[in-house]
Each structure stands twice: as C-alpha cells, then as structure tokens.
Amino acid sequence: MKPLRNFLVKSLEIFLVSAFTALTLDVLWGVFTRHVLASPSRWTEELAIYLLIWVSLLGAGLTYEEKGHLGVDYFVGKLHPDARRLGSIFVELVVLFFAGFGLLYGGWELVTKTLAAGQITPALGWQKGYLYTAVPIAGVFFTLFSVEHLFEIFRKKADEKELSANKEVDV
Q: CB-based contacts of 88: which residues, under 8 Å, 6+ apart?
C-alpha cells in the first residue's frame, strides 16, 4: 500500500510542477503578445484559467496530504489529548464526506452533464467536461488521504495503548 501511495503522491507532485510551469509560461506568453507584439493571443487567458483550476484543486489535495491545510491549531492545542483525537477524527470525517459527496459525486455529475451537453471552450475549442475532471480527480485524492489520516489516528491510539500496557507489565 505504501509504494502505491508514494507513487500517487510523486505523480501528483510532478503533474503540479508541470502544470504550474505551463501556467507561468502561458501567462508570460499572453503578456508578451499583448504588450510587445500588440497582438494578444485569445487562448492564453482561457488556458490560464483552466490550468489555475487544476493547480488549485490538485494542489489543495497535495497540501491536505502533507497536513499543511489551515487549522485552528492554537485552540486545538489547548484541548485534552482525547478531545484533540476526537476533533481530528471529526475533521477527517467531514473532509471524507465533502470529498465523497461534493467532489467525487458532484464532480462526476458536472463532468458527465457537461460532456452530454457538448459544451466547448470558446478560444481553445476543447470540451469543457474534460477540463472539469479536475474536480472528481481531486475528490479521489482527498478521499484517499482522508482515509489514510484516519488510519494514522487509530494506529497512533493503538500504539499508545500497547505502550502503556507494556509499561504496566514492566512495573
């Protein structure tokens, strides 16, 4: 399981670096054509919008995996360790629900309905449904990482119980 997780995280990192590089180059090209060539490219702004969506959604998933998301650490740190654990479980369950219902289910509905409607982007001529796949893909990552975080919380509690049981035996 660990090699698959590491592969997914590394693939996500590589994709995000590539997409962010493409976004930067796209914006620079748009500025160059607008101000230097005085002939703006129509497609650069549209591509930048879609790249920003992908980078934002998938980057949020990677940040969540690394536990770099926003939190109320000051207040949580003041709680009793058991309350902290329950709070962590609650937060992971909320994220799991949102990822499953909002991103996976809702994102899949968005993609399928947009593809069925045949919506095309005006400048690039791409089907919008394919561009919206960032939503359910981000949902997959959030779901996997949330489940992983829950396992870590429960594994940590089991390790603490085992450690305390071993200390009682030693005494």
A: 149, 153
* Cβ atoms of 89 and 153 closer than 8 Å: yes
Most confident stretch, 21-35, 67-81, 153-167: 21-35
| DSSP output for 101-164 | IIIIIHHHHHHHHHHHHT-B-TTT--BHHHHTTHHHHHHHHHHHHHHHHHHHHHHHHHHHHHHH
Range of the domain at 44: 2-170
Q: Name the residue with tokens 């994709």.
A: 15
Looking at the 3D structure of the chain, how many domains does it have?
1
pTM of the predicted model as reported, rounded to 2 decimal places: 0.85
State the Cα angle at 109 between 113 and 68, rounded to 5°: 135
Burial of 139 by CB count in 10 Å (0-12 exposed, 13-18 middle, 19+ buried)?
buried
* 47: pLDDT strictly greater than 80: yes
Closest CA to 122 of 45, 36, 53: 45
How far is CA 108 from its chain centroid?
A: 16
Structure tokens at 46: 């549209």
Q: For all residues of the chain together, what is the average pLDDT?
A: 89
Could you read off the pLDDT of 90-137 as tens digits, one per residue?
A: 889 999 999 999 999 999 999 999 999 999 999 999 999 999 999 999
Nearest residue to 58 via CA among 139, 2, 145, 132? 139
